[in-house]
Design brief:
The chain has 364 residues and is of the alpha/beta class. Helix content is 34%, strand content 27%. The protein has 3 domains: 2-62, no CATH class; 70-140, no CATH class; 155-363, Alpha-Beta Complex (2-enoyl-CoA Hydratase, Chain A, domain 1), CATH 3.90.226.
Length: 364
């Protein structure tokens, strides 16, 4: 938003087009260009100090979006409730949420919302509040919900280098890995191997997950495998509605060099989420890494999308992680760091800690 302010010089408010307790639609004029825009803002119903949505579109483009009426909002809510009942990780909770969701609708919580994106965000925020589950959510597609991504189309992974944003060496021989996603090892193993080989001869390793919002637990297991010298039990993924569990262990046979017997630091922020939290949680529980930064977002459940109608999807958690050491997970509470500092200060703090450990090792 600060970059937007710098590029536009801000906006003059012209009018309020619609509003509710937690949302507003407004017309504004960009100061720099005098272009008119339609702005939308939604704040969380359970945490109004947090802005969930803030968007600006050209005034003419806004008129082409899908306009919802009461009947469509009712269809989406009923569809979301039905899918929760069928697929949610905790069936008893799903039934209670369905009743509460319809009660919110009956009280007029969504009255007046004609914008699909605002409705999706508001509904998703309320579902998070009702379930206490940060992985549940609703997505809106104005041009129609997309079909499944072709399984063999890996260009989108290549575009972001499988989440491996950078691998560097800092003095005195500290390896640094910036990882923004844990992508599918079926396609991304070569990238992971190359990164870990590049960093293998470092005396300490910093893994930066401050901007990582999750991904595949199997990639978590692959990367963790480079940090242990023996086969180690990481997690169990429980699928209650499917009546089976998946057991995640580190791998014994890996290409390239391992990074064992040397200090590891994991950087976290409040935005670190899902599989990124799993990586930090596992290494912390096993005392293999020092977590530096902020308490993470608190989302531990596996999630799958389900189509409600032509424009709306709901993301429903269907699996939970059980750590073999703690016998629980980080759902709703996040991963607490060993060394608590702001996300902005985490790298400098970890570098100082790593340099100190390297110096002590060299003295011995």
């Amino acid at each position: 938003m600060m970059r937007r302010r710098a590029s536009t010089r801000g906006y003059d408010l012209l009018s309020v087009e619609g509003e509710g307790d937690f949302w507003i639609v407004f017309r504004a004029r960009e100061i720099k260009s005098s272009a008119e825009v339609i702005g939308s803002m939604v704040v969380r119903s359970y945490e109004p100090g947090h802005v969930t949505l803030l968007s600006f579109v050209p005034a003419g483009a806004h008129a082409n979006e899908v306009n919802l009426d009461k009947a469509e909002r009712t269809r989406v809510i009923d569809g979301a409730a039905k899918l929760l009942d069928e697929y949610y990780l905790y069936p008893d909770m799903a039934r209670k949420v369905s009743v509460k969701l319809k009660a919110l609708q009956g009280r007029g919580e969504y009255r007046g919302i004609t914008d699909g994106e605002i409705f999706a965000v508001r509904l998703g925020d309320d579902l998070v509040e009702l379930t206490g589950d940060k992985h549940v959510g609703v997505d809106f597609f104005p041009k129609g919900a997309p079909g499944p991504r072709p399984r063999r189309d890996t260009r989108w992974l290549a575009d972001r280098n499988c989440g491996f944003e950078s691998a560097e060496h800092f003095p005195p021989n500290i390896g640094y890995l910036k990882l923004t996603a844990f992508d599918d090892p079926q396609y991304c193993t070569p990238t992971a191997v190359a990164a870990m080989n590049f960093l293998a001869d470092s005396d300490a390793l910093i893994i930066d997950l401050r901007d990582n919002h999750g991904g595949a637990p199997q990639m978590v297991a692959l990367l963790a495998s480079y940090l242990f010298d023996k086969r180690t039990h990481l997690d169990d993924i429980d699928y209650p509605t499917r009546h089976y569990a998946e057991h995640l262990w580190t791998r014994l046979n890996l290409p390239g060099k391992k990074f064992t017997g040397k200090p590891v630091f994991v950087l976290t922020s409040g935005s670190t989420f899902s599989a990124a939290e799993e990586f930090a949680y596992d290494l912390k529980s096993l005392k293999r890494a020092t977590v530096v930064g902020e308490t993470t977002g608190g989302g531990a459940h596996g999630t799958a999308p389900h189509r409600i109608d032509d424009h709306f999807f709901i993301r429903i958690p269907f699996a939970r992680i059980i750590n073999p050491i703690t016998k629980t997970d980080w759902e709703g509470i996040g991963v607490e760091p060993n060394v608590e500092v702001s996300a902005a200060e985490a790298l400098a703090a970890a570098e100082k800690l790593a340099a100190g450990e390297i110096g002590e090792d060299r003295l011995h």
